[in-house]
Model the fold of this input.
Amino acid sequence: MVFPTRHAYLTIHWLTAGADPERGQCGIRFYDATPQTQADVDNCAAAVSAFWSNATSVISQFHRLEFIRLASIDVDGKYFPGSVAYDHVYPGTIPGGGSAVALFPLQVAEVITLRTAMPRGRGHAGRCYLPAVQVNMATSWLWPAANVNTRTANFATMLTALNAFFAGPASVMSSLGAGVANTITSVNADLRPDTQRRRARQLPTALGTPAAV
Done:
C-alpha cells in the first residue's frame, strides 16, 4: 500500500442502541502531512456531532455517535513513526436526530459518494457508508429524494467545516501504484439502499442531488 503523501485520517465511529450493540465507522482523508494532536481531533468534534444530531440528516436515534479518531498516516499506510491516534469520546454518545419512524436491518446502509474534479480513473471518487436513512421507503423501493438530499447537504457542510481544521482539504486517495490524491469537490448519495443483495446483483443506482464541498 503506497499513498502519494503523508496525510490525516479521520474516522467516525457509532454504535447501535441495545443490549448487544453493533458498531460501524467511516473514514475521511485530509491532505495534511503535519503530525496530528489531541487538540486537532477535539477541534473536529463539533462539526461531526452537528451533522449526526441534525434532524434533517435523518439518522436514527438508535444509531449513536460514540467517538471520532484522528491518525497521522505515512505513505506506507501505517502511522507516522512515533505517532499515535487520538480519540475524542462523546460523553454518553450522541443519538441521531431522526425519529424512529422506520427501522432497517443493520446490514442496510446509505452510500455517500465523494466526488472530485476528475471524471474517472484512479482516485476520482470515494465512498462513505452511513446508517440507513430514517424514513419509510417509497413504493419505488427508494428513499425519498428530499430526505436523501438534506442528508447529503449536511454531510457536505460537515466536510467544509472540517476542512478549516487541516492544512489541506478532504481528499480521495488511491493507494494503487504510486498513489494519487484528489480534492473532494462535492458529494452525492444514492436513493437506493446499499445491501449485500444489491452488491451481488448490481442493482441500478438512483442518485440524489450533489452538494458542493
User: Anything to note?
Assistant: The chain has one domain: 7-212. Strands lie at 7-16, 23-30, 63-73, 86-95, 109-116, 125-131, 170-174, 180-189, 211-212. The two ends are 28 Å apart (CA to CA).
